[in-house]
Structures are given as structure tokens and as C-alpha cells.
């Protein structure tokens, strides 16, 4: 069974994590480049950004406004720990702000930061922390009453991908599954 949503957010930590050739030109994909530790060459990032533009893939940079503007990205991604309001200065241009939240309080903070979309975590149980709490489909749908622009993240894999059809949102975000099985997961999104 295929998953049909308006938007797919792929969170990567390196431009080598994803093969853009596997993504068909559908204007449904957004890539969030989240690289906290290692630095990739700016020239390589510019090439990657141009390839994204050619395929109509939105490109966002996490928590680095300077890099986001230098790469002419479509916007910036503000992690849940990022409480800065600097990105609001870019709000007047065609610069989107996406945020990340783990609680209702963080959702309200991201709204104040001007976030158009809020990636809300954890939807399902994650493999790296079995004791961590997660929302599940019903609780996530209840949070959609607070903000219609929530996007689920966390624990989404090939086994529970069909459960996303039960969620009343416009898209979803993937992070670890992109690194593990990128071809398999992208093929299931069409």
C-alpha cells in the first residue's frame, strides 16, 4: 500500500544520506539539512542545493540562518531547543520557518517564532530508546486540534508506514529510516 500525503520531509545529517536521483519530480519533498557536528564544504552544499532546485525539492537548513541565506535555501528549520527569534527577520521574504516540538508548550513557542510548519515528535516508539514515551495515532490527531500544521516524526519505519494514512495531517517527516533504507522508503511514498 502507498502513503499519499501532500508533503514529505526528509531530515538528513549529510548530503550523502540521500540520492536525489531516486526522488521523482513531484514537488512533494522537502529536505532538512541538519548537520550539528561535521561541516561539509560550502561548494558541495551549493551543488546539492542546485540539484534540489532542479527537482523542485524544498531545501531547509537547521539552526544556521547565515548558512541558510548563503545557500539561498527555501527556509530554516528551528530545532526544539532553539529559542531564538532571529529567523523572524527573514519572514517577510519567501523564507519559510519550520520548527520542531515535543510538547504543547514547545508548540506555542514555535508559533511565536513564526513557524509555518511544526514537526512534532514522537509519533511511534523509537528503536534507540524503547522506554521513551510516544504519542500514537489518536493522541497525535488530538494535537492537530491545537495546530493544523503539525507534521509527525519519530519511529516511522517500513512496518508502520501504513498507519500514517490514519493521521489527519498533510505530511510526515522521516529521519533515521532515510539512512537505513532510503530506496525502500522512497519507493513506498508514491
Instruction: Let me know the CATH homologous superfamily.
Output: Aldolase class I
**Can you summarize the main beta sheet?**
8 strands, parallel
Structural class: alpha/beta
One letter per element, helices H and strands E, the order comes to EEHEHEEHEHEEHH
Number of helices: 6
Q: Report the helical percentage.
A: 25-40%
What's the architecture, going by CATH?
A: Alpha-Beta Barrel
Mind explaining what this structure looks like?
With 190 residues, the protein is of the alpha/beta class. It has a single domain, classed as TIM Barrel. It has 6 helices and 8 strands; from the N terminus they run ββαβαββαβαββαα. The protein has helices at 42-54, 65-70, 104-112, 136-143, 176-180, 182-188; strands at 7-12, 29-33, 58-62, 75-78, 96-101, 117-121, 150-153, 171-174. The protein has an 8-stranded parallel sheet with strand order 7-6-5-4-3-2-1-8. The relative contact order is 0.18.
Question: Topology of this structure?
Answer:
Elements: E1 7-12, E2 29-33, H1 42-54, E3 58-62, H2 65-70, E4 75-78, E5 96-101, H3 104-112, E6 117-121, H4 136-143, E7 150-153, E8 171-174, H5 176-180, H6 182-188
Parallel strand pairs: 1-2, 1-8, 2-3, 3-4, 4-5, 5-6, 6-7
Summarize the structure.
Helix content is 25%, strand content 21%. The chain has helices spanning 42-54, 65-70, 104-112, 136-143, 176-180, 182-188, and strands at residues 7-12, 29-33, 58-62, 75-78, 96-101, 117-121, 150-153, 171-174.
Amino acid at each position: 500500500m502507498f502513503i499519499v500525503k501532500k508533503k514529505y520531509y526528509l531530515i538528513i545529517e549529510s548530503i550523502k544520506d540521500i540520492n536525489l536521483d531516486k526522488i521523482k519530480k513531484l514537488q512533494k519533498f522537502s529536505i532538512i539539512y541538519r548537520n550539528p557536528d561535521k561541516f561539509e564544504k560550502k561548494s558541495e552544499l551549493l551543488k546539492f542545493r542546485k540539484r534540489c532546485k532542479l527537482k523542485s525539492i524544498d531545501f531547509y537548513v537547521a539552526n544556521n540562518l547565515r548558512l541558510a541565506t548563503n545557500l539561498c535555501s527555501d527556509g530554516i528549520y528551528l530545532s526544539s531547543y532553539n529559542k531564538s527569534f532571529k529567523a523572524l527577520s527573514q519572514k517577510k521574504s519567501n523564507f519559510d520557518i519550520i520548527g520542531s516540538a515535543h510538547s504543547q508548550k514547545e508548540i506555542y513557542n514555535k508559533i511565536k517564532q513564526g513557524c509555518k510548519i511544526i514537526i512534532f515528535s514522537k509519533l511511534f516508539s523509537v528503536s534507540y530508546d524503547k522506554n521513551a514515551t510516544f504519542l500514537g495515532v489518536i493522541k497525535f490527531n488530538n494535537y492537530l486540534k491545537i495546530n493544523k500544521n503539525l507534521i509527525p516524526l519519530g519511529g516511522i519505519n517500513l512496518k508502520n508506514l501504513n498507519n500514517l494514512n490514519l493521521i489527519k495531517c498533510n505530511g510526515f517527516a522521516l529521519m533515521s529510516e532515510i539512512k537505513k533504507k532510503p530506496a525502500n522508503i522512497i519507493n513506498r511514498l508514491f
